[in-house]
Amino acid sequence: MSSSISPDADFNQPPPLENYNLFDSDCALKEAVARNGGGWIDADARKFGELLGKPETINLGVLANRFPPELRTHDRFGYRIDEVAYHSAYHELLSIGIEAQTHSLPWKEKRLGVHVARAALVMLRHQIDEGSSCPLTMVRREYGARFASSCDNPKRKPEDSGYLLCRAPYRESRFGPRSIALERRRGIASGTRPTKGAAGLGSKNYSAV
After folding, report:
1. Which of 10-24, 122-136, 191-205 has the lowest mean pLDDT?
2. Does residue 20 lie in a domain region?
3. 10 Å Cβ neighbour count for 77?
4. pLDDT tier at 131 (50, 70, 90 boundaries)?
5. Residue 103 and residue 132: Cα distance in Å, rounded?
6. Is residue 6 in some structural domain?
7. Residue 170 and residue 148: Cα distance in Å, rounded?
8. pLDDT at residue 26 in the model
9. What's the pLDDT at 152?
10. Mean pLDDT along residues 106-121
11. E-state strands within 14-159
């Protein structure tokens, strides 16, 4: 008995999950956001979800994981630089997250449910790539833990500790991948790295630009 199905046909495979809106298709997330006071973010979340569901955006996450960071200790002239080079897809993913304010929304909006609203945007973006989500999450935590109140102090002076970190705000919504001095940047990112001492695991602050 002959079969009408070609042996090369992938008849048992689902179609690619793309060209869909990540926010509109997540009933649980939409209901949770509305229930907890973040419903005002719906329009932005819907626009964000549409962007993240496009094939080209999904592919950015694939490329960012396929090509890991590369440590470059010296430039082509032999000078020490100690730079880490990332694939362009990683930079694009960071740019998408920063433009959507996933790193800074609670420190820019003084509205009820703002942390819920930011969490919704983060939940959407995490589905595309987790690696580039890490620094964005650390920026939000670091600014809130260290600078949220002191940076808003009108009496803060340039000679005060941490002034530069306030002047070059964590709240900037544009991303630049160039390796330049901190003083020349419009914004910065800051996070933590784990340390292990006699008391067990801890964390140490560092700044990355």
Report:
1. 191-205
2. no
3. 6
4. confident
5. 12
6. no
7. 10
8. 97
9. 60
10. 91
11. 70-74, 80-85
Is-contact 52 125, C-beta < 8 A?
yes
Take residue 11 and report the two structure tokens written for it: 């008849």
Top mean pLDDT of 42-46, 80-84, 161-165 is at 42-46
Residues 162-176: what's their mean pLDDT?
A: 59
* Contact (Cβ atoms closer than 8 angstroms) between residue 29 and residue 126: no
- 3-state class (DSSP) for residue 196: strand
CA distances from 190 to 33, 124, 198, 200, 207 (A): 28, 22, 25, 23, 4
- Report yes or no on 130 lying in a domain: yes
Write out the two tokens for 16: 């690619």
Burial group, residue 119, by CB count within 10 angstroms (0-12, 13-18, 19+): buried
When the pLDDT of each residue in the chain is averaged and rounded to a whole number, the result is 80
Summary count for the chain: helices (H), strands (E): 8, 4
The first and second tokens of residue 104, run together, are 């800074």
Residues 6+ positions from 44 with CB-CB distance below 8 Å: 100, 121
Residue type, 19: N
The whole domain housing 97 covers 27-208
